[in-house]
């Protein structure tokens, strides 16, 4: 990944799902790539075709270290998908207890946020 960055590859390029390299790195649990991309200034709150942010994807996947890093780097935990779900919603739905705890401890999530089905995360 670092080699591609050094050769000037577009770091916010989009694929057919409107996902960026950061979305893919988060999805695949590639912490080194996530850190490199964020430190190179990519949009940490970029959304794909489902309006998922990297934080929402990492919360669903249970990648606690990535969730913590993204939050520390300024990821917005209150952004929602096109269905109104937040990072907390998907962490709860995926039964990722460590990520749920981490999100709650930050104080950056809304526990009363309702999705399109009028369901709150908790």
Automatic annotation (TrEMBL):
Q: Gene3D superfamilies of this UniProt entry?
A: Ankyrin repeat-containing domain
Per the record's keyword annotation, is Repeat included, yes or no? yes
Q: Which domain of life is it from?
A: Eukaryota
Q: Which residues form the signal peptide?
A: none
Q: Which UniProt keywords apply?
A: ANK repeat, Repeat
Q: What ranges cover the ANK repeats?
A: 17-49, 50-82, 83-107
Locate the coiled-coil region(s) and give their ranges.
Answer: none
Against PROSITE patterns, the record matches this protein to: ANK_REP_REGION, ANK_REPEAT
The identity of this protein, by name, is Ankyrin repeat protein
Q: Tell me the organism.
A: Amylocarpus encephaloides
């Amino acid at each position: 990944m670092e080699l591609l960055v050094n050769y000037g590859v577009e770091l916010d390029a989009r694929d057919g799902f409107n996902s960026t390299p950061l979305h893919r790195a988060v999805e695949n649990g590639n912490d080194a790539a996530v850190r490199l991309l964020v430190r190179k200034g990519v949009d940490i709150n970029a959304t794909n075709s489902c309006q998922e942010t990297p934080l929402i994807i990492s919360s669903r996947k249970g990648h606690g270290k990535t969730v913590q890093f993204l939050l520390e780097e300024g990821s917005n935990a209150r952004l929602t998908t096109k269905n109104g779900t937040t990072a907390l919603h998907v962490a709860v739905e995926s039964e990722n207890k460590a990520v749920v705890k981490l999100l709650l401890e930050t104080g950056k999530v809304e526990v009363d946020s309702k999705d399109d089905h009028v369901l709150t995360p908790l």
